[in-house]
Amino acid sequence: MTKMKRQDLPPEQREVFWVERLKGNERQQFVVYSPTLWGCWTHYNAAKKETTPCYEDERFCHGGHEIETMRWRGYVFAWSKSRMEPVFIQLTPGACRSWLKQLAEGATLRGQLIEVWRTKSDKGRLLVAVNKYAHRSNEAMPQPPSPIKSLYNMWHVTEVPHLMRASVVEDEKDLPDEFPNTRVG
Length: 185
Ligand SMILES: [Zn+2]
Fold this sequence. Notes:
By secondary structure, the chain is α+β, with helices and mostly antiparallel strands. It has helices at 93-101, 148-155, 162-165, and strands spanning 19-20, 27-32, 38-45, 50-53, 70-80, 85-91, 113-118, 126-132. Zinc ion is lined by residues 43, 54-55, 58, 61, 65. Zinc ion binds at residues 43, 54-55, 58, 61, 65.
């Protein structure tokens, strides 16, 4: 006699999710799935309005590893009440600092009901307010996937790095992690 193959959470259908970047005067509510922030460094090219990832191996940084163009971004996986689907929320250092200050030490982000909004313009301050705290991690919620594929998709990072084309990188294992060979999503 064999048992039924059981799984209580429905299988996730996607690897690439929408990355929510709030515009000026926008206000949205989310239920947070991630227990902690996931952060990374990027480079922002203001002339091209283009964001690209920053790598530990700085030879991969598109357009060069310039300190002045470095921007930190924090991400959490969350249910978007306005889109009615799970998304990654992109947050600024200031938004993350103010969010973390609202929490008791060791508190999980998972299960929190938060409101995120941006003041005035698209360059206005991004703010996070906790409307409801979670008291324990909710086992029935989906586990957060890695945001890397969603970020590469948003940044349109679809090409093999320029240095690989120039044969500077000889071994594939030297490539950035989860680097997409083809366009995703
Ligand atoms: Zn860099």
